[in-house]
Design a protein that fits this description.
Layout lengths: L1 E8 L3 E10 L2 E11 L6 H4 L4 H20 L4 E6 L1 H5 L3 H12 L3 E3 L2 H13 L8 E6 L4 E7 L2 E7 L3 H7 L8 H14 L10 E5 L1 H10 L7 H4 L3 E3 H11 L4 H7 L11 H14 L4 E5 L3 H9 L1
Parallel strand pairs: 1-4, 4-5, 6-9, 9-11
Antiparallel strand pairs: 1-2, 2-3, 6-7, 7-8, 10-11
Helix pairs in contact: 5-13, 6-12, 8-12, 10-12
Length: about 300
C-alpha cells in the first residue's frame, strides 16, 4: 500500500486527489477542487496571465499543506489544454518546479483522454460500447471503445473558451446562442456512430449539473456517481438557465460552486449539443476521471 497525490491543473479548475493505492485499487483519502480560471484571457493574449498564475499558485500552496497531512510518497501533477496552448507554459512550469518542487507534465489531448479512460473504467460495472465525454475549460475529449481499443478525439473547445468567444454574459442573446451552436457543431467533426452508446460524462460541468439535478444542498460526489440524466431534463435545464443572470444562477442552486456560475450555461449547451448531434437520449455521470486515471496509470 502506498499513498499518492494527484494534481490536475486544468484550464478552469485545479483539482487534488490523495489516495491509498493497493494492487491497482484506489481508496480515496481526500479530494477537492478550486476554480482557478487559469486560462482566463488566453483567447486574447495567448499567455497565462499574472492574475491566473497567482490564483493557481495560491491553490497549489494550499494543496501541498493537505498532501503533507497524509504523508504522500509521491505527487503526480499534470497540465492540460491551458498548458498546451499558452506561449508562456514552460516559464510557468519551471516556476512551479522552483517554488513547490512539483514536476508538472503537460498531457496531449490523446494522453488526456487515455488517462481519463483509465479512471472511468476502473469502475468495474461499466460495459463496452461507451462514449466518455470530458468537458474542460479549453478542450473537450470524446473517448470511446472500438475493437477492444480506446480511441480519443480531442477538440479545442471548452466552457471557458466558449464563454470568451461567444457567450460573454447571461442571459444569452439569440445571436450569441446561434453563433455558439454553429461553432460547436462545426467543431465536432466525428464520423463514428455514437447513437446507441452509453454516454458517460466526467469532470466539473457534468458533476455540477448532476448535483443540481439531485437538488443537493451541498455538493456530494458519492451521491452523483452514476446518476442518470435524460435529454428532456437537460434541454429544460438549459432553456431555464440561458434566460437567467449569473447572479440568479448562483442563488438558485445551493450546491453549485459560485465560480462555476459563469460557465454553467455554456457547459449545459455543450452537453445538449453533443446529445443532439449523436442522437443520445440519456447520460450517466461518473465521479472518477483523469485524477483516478493518473494515479492508476503510475501505480
Amino acid at each position: 500500500m502506498v499513498v499518492v497525490a494527484g494534481i490536475d491543473c486544468g484550464s478552469n479548475s485545479t483539482r487534488l486527489l490523495v489516495s491509498e493505492v493497493n494492487n491497482g485499487e484506489i481508496k480515496k483519502l481526500y479530494k477537492t477542487h478550486n476554480v482557478t480560471k487559469t486560462s482566463e484571457g488566453l483567447e486574447d493574449s495567448n499567455k497565462i496571465s499574472t492574475d491566473s498564475k497567482k490564483r493557481l499558485f495560491k491553490v497549489l500552496r494550499g494543496y501541498l499543506r493537505e498532501i503533507e497531512k497524509y504523508q504522500a510518497s509521491q505527487i503526480l501533477c499534470i497540465g492540460t489544454a491551458v498548458f498546451r496552448d499558452a506561449e508562456n507554459s514552460e516559464e510557468i512550469i519551471e516556476e512551479i518546479k522552483q517554488k513547490f518542487d512539483i514536476n508538472l507534465k503537460v498531457l496531449s489531448g490523446e494522453e488526456e483522454g487515455q488517462t481519463t479512460s483509465i479512471g472511468v473504467l476502473s469502475d468495474r460495472d461499466l460495459n463496452d460500447n461507451f462514449l466518455i465525454v470530458d468537458i474542460g475549460g479549453r478542450s473537450t475529449e470524446l473517448i470511446y471503445d472500438n475493437k477492444k481499443k480506446i480511441h480519443v478525439e480531442s477538440f479545442n473547445l471548452g466552457v471557458v473558451s466558449l464563454n470568451e468567444s461567444f457567450l460573454s454574459h447571461n442571459p444569452l442573446t439569440k445571436t450569441e446562442e446561434e453563433s455558439a451552436i454553429e461553432f460547436i457543431n462545426n467543431n465536432f467533426n466525428v464520423y463514428e456512430n455514437f447513437t446507441n452508446r452509453e454516454l458517460i460524462g466526467v469532470a466539473g460541468t457534468f458533476t455540477s449539473i448532476a448535483s443540481i439535478y439531485l437538488n443537493q444542498q451541498k455538493y456530494n460526489e458519492e451521491e452523483i456517481h452514476f446518476q442518470k440524466i435524460d435529454f428532456d431534463w437537460m434541454e429544460s435545464f438549459y432553456n431555464k438557465i440561458k434566460s437567467m443572470t449569473v447572479a440568479q444562477i448562483i442563488a438558485s442552486f445551493n450546491s453549485l460552486d459560485p465560480k462555476r456560475g459563469i460557465t454553467l450555461t455554456g457547459g449545459a449547451l455543450l452537453i445538449l449539443s453533443i446529445m443532439k448531434k449523436f442522437k443520445i437520449n440519456e447520460l450517466k455521470v461518473s465521479k472518477s476521471d483523469i485524477l483516478e486515471g493518473l494515479i492508476l496509470k503510475n501505480y
